[in-house]
């Protein structure tokens, strides 16, 4: 296949990096397939992007919010029309199977239409004053220039969670996509421009975290950083931003669990476990990496799950028969392999998988066999640390109280799930779970854009993406008092 050359988008033009350096983007299902060559940018490119974003900020803020919304609506229409083309590229670039890639694009479509509607709302508040002839209200002001750092596992959905709310709130933005999925980000920016976005409003800078992400975080003119990625990197970003009075929104890791109680619909639970653990090859922050089973049904469900996992069809996500694609790169393959060794050394029993999968055409990619451990206790590293691969740890418990305790017993708090047909137990779990997202009779994955997304503890820093909560990230509240009494009035005194 051809090896096309892609560019940054800075200061209203497509351009190479200042250094002229490049990197290659490969298909994780076939290392011989090069998607393209991309600019290996650095602080010089970030500086130029910031200057351009600053120059366009005032004009974009003067654009009426409904007009900004109309641009995003057109983005949604273009994404709809090009959904299959974009999904094919995403699967080739990132590895997820086609129907999942289509879902990734659909989430960006949903976010475009949802956020476009906010252009005619951007709700503030009017409240009564304690004094006569005085009017009180709140407005939303833009933050300024936003640095948006996005991961590779949802290369259009997650940029849409950040770019669209940032733009509707009248900010300008610099998008730094993951270097594993730069082609999807390029198409994303092309579509925004095609929809009529003023060219200098959004910048696209390709490159690595140290070379682009760090200068972006540390640039004094960047007012806000929105980051999705590892907890360790997020903590470093948070520490710097707090010292330099930058606004920061973090969406980080998860160690999510599905609980299955003895009264659950086991057929339904089985489908949810397979999807939650092995969908996207386990490479979701909401993936189900722990399975907590009540002992009475543990043996039966484990046996059925083992049979399903052993028979999952691995291969290129472009093939309709494929059920699970590759890991993203060699580094991730090595990380997952290392965790399998850790689990075995800790005394967990490996039921299936645990090794790279190199049969047939899979020998050309970063495939890993679906992996299940049993005899796991909650303090093992494989039950505590995010692996980000197709590895599931089964923990057996006596009752719902022990199940909830185990589910909550990690440093993360993103998504938890319970399968039960007892409404009392379901509501007990909803109240007791320490997580930002709760599912009942469904796996730990499946966000919808009209609802807040994010978690607690080491998963986030108190913000939520999507829904109206995203507006609180990308805007600042301004409180306005209008006194039309014609005299000095003193709140709390008069």
SSE order and pairing:
Layout: E1 8-10, E2 13-15, E3 22-27, E4 30-39, H1 43-62, H2 65-81, H3 83-94, H4 98-118, E5 125-127, E6 134-142, E7 145-149, H5 157-168, E8 172-176, H6 182-194, E9 202-204, H7 209-218, E10 222-228, H8 231-243, E11 247-251, E12 256-260, H9 266-278, E13 288-294, H10 295-310, H11 330-345, E14 349-352, E15 371-374, H12 381-384, E16 391-397, H13 400-408, E17 412-413, E18 415-419, H14 423-432, E19 437-440, E20 456-457, H15 469-473, E21 475-483
Parallel strand pairs: 7-8, 7-10, 8-9, 10-11, 12-13, 12-18, 13-16, 15-16, 18-19
Antiparallel strand pairs: 1-2, 3-4, 5-6, 6-21, 14-15, 17-20
Helix pairs in contact: 1-7, 2-4, 3-4, 3-6, 4-5, 9-10
């Amino acid at each position: 296949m051809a090896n096309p050359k892609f560019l940054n988008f800075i200061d209203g033009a497509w351009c190479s990096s200042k250094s002229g350096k490049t990197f290659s983007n490969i298909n994780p299902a076939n290392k011989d397939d090069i998607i393209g060559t991309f600019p290996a940018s650095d602080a010089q490119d970030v500086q130029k992007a910031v200057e351009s974003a600053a120059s366009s900020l005032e004009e974009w803020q003067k654009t009426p919010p409904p007009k900004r919304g109309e641009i995003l609506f057109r983005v949604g229409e273009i994404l709809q029309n090009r959904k299959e083309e974009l999904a094919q590229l995403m699967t080739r670039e990132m590895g997820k199977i086609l129907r999942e890639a289509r879902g990734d694009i659909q989430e960006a479509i949903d976010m475009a239409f949802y956020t476009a509607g906010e252009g005619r709302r951007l709700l503030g508040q009017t409240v009564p004053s304690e004094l006569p002839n005085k009017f009180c209200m709140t407005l939303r002001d833009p933050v300024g220039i936003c640095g948006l750092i996005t991961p590779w596992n949802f290369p259009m959905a997650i940029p849409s969670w950040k770019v669209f709310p940032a733009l509707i709130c009248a900010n300008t933005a610099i998008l730094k996509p993951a270097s594993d999925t730069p082609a999807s980000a390029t198409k994303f920016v092309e579509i925004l421009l095609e929809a009529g976005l003023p060219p200098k409003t959004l910048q696209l800078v390709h490159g690595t975290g140290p070379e682009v992400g760090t200068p972006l975080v540390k640039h004094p003119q960047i007012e806000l950083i929105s980051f999705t990625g590892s907890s360790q990197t997020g903590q470093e970003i948070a520490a710097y931003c707090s010292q330099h009075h930058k606004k920061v929104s973090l969406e980080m890791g998860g160690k999510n669990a599905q609980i299955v109680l003895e009264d659950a619909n086991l057929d339904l639970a089985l489908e949810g476990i397979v999807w939650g653990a092995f969908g996207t090859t386990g490479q979701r922050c909401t993936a189900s990496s722990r399975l907590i089973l009540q002992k009475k049904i543990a043996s039966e469900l484990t046996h059925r799950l083992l049979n399903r996992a052993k028979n999952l069809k691995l291969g290129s996500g472009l093939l309709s028969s494929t059920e699970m694609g590759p890991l993203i790169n060699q580094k991730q393959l090595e990380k997952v392999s290392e965790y399998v060794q850790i689990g075995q050394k800790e005394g967990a029993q490996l039921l299936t998988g645990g090794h790279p999968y190199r049969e047939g055409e899979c020998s050309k990619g970063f495939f890993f066999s679906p992996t299940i451990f049993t005899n796991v206790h909650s303090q093992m590293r494989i039950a505590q640390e995010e692996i980000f691969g197709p590895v599931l740890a089964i923990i057996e418990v006596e009752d719902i109280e022990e199940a909830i305790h185990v589910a909550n017993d990690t440093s993360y708090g993103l998504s938890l799930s319970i399968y039960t047909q007892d409404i009392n137990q379901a509501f007990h779990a909803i109240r007791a779970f320490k997580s930002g997202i709760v599912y009942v009779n469904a796996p730990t994955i499946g966000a919808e854009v009209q609802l807040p997304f994010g978690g607690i503890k080491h998963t986030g820093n108190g913000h939520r993406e999507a829904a109206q909560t995203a507006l609180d990230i990308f805007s600042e509240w301004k409180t306005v008092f209008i006194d039309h009494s014609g005299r000095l009035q003193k709140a709390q005194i008069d």
